[in-house]
# Entry
Amino acid sequence: MREFCSLPQAVAALKRGELVAIPTETVYGLGGVALWPGTVARIFEVKGRPTFDPLIVHVPTLDAVDEIVSSFPPAARSLATHFWPGPLTLVLPKAAQIPDLVTAGLPSVAVRIPAHPFARELLERLALPVAAPSANLFGRVSPTTAAHVADQLGDQLDWILDGGPCSVGVESTVVSFAEAGVPCLLRPGGISLEALEAVIGPVNWPQPITSEHPAVAQLAPGTLPQHYAPLTTISLGDLSQTIPPGKIGALAFQSCPRPERFAVVEILSPLGDLAEAAAQLFAAMRRLDCAGLDAIIAERVPDYGLGRAINDRLTRAAWNR
Ligand code: AMP
Ligand code: MG
# Structure
């Protein structure tokens, strides 16, 4: 890592084709100018991300979206006007100027207008689209503070722009309009399915991943069944049940029964607020991962609103363990 930088330094570095870790309201992104294949290639290299996993392109305005897509259906436009800037990504037919590397060869591009004031200011000053996956090593826990980014990618990264802790804390909701017909939810995230459907009516959600339905993970490129994973073994379970011997950590929603049985307990939201739980999730997973535990047991949260995004991340973190 060179250093933490100011916003003008970040803009200048991006213009030189360098990579900058950028704060957004979802998680920190590993950003580079989306129009330059050499820069985009470095994003994949630094993250260790397979090139079949397409990147989200970040822009400051609806006019800038129009420049990188070849069509923008009315329902997608309604979602855009309701939820942008914000934690929603729309997959739309791409314009020719977006390199194939960004979209993993797909004819569609994922686009988002982020809400974080630093991200918005940076994109406005830069006036170029920025491709940015989460600023973590591929498959690992996403960063929600600048320190998380420095810990994991510091050696390979040019610059980090510190914008404080991420307010939403889970990735954006991804909705595809790539095919005609009913829009499809590719990833639950910071905007709930209920909120989307209140605006545009039914949204198709292919069965969420379960051990019985691993194949569904292939529906959306990059939505791999194992993802968001700490290095410590994590499993989903009922925290009131008997736990295995050893140093075990608990990841609980509101409270943990008989906490003295656990070496470490992380509570996501004592008041049972799903938005607070989402904002705490990845930092809590990292703290548990650093605690020298033999295993982590996590409980699922209520499966509505932001709870769906949290359960999706927990299921992927625990996949195949
Ligand atoms: P990340 O950058 O890690 O937040 O992940 C971005 C996710 O957006 C990918 O893993 C895909 O699920 C989705 N995505 C990005 N581009 C496309 C696309 N062109 N078509 C479908 N899904 C996409
Ligand atoms: Mg990611």
Notes: Residues 69 and 95 are 5 Å apart (CA to CA). The longest strand covers residues 88-93. Confidence is low (pLDDT under 50) at residues 211-219.
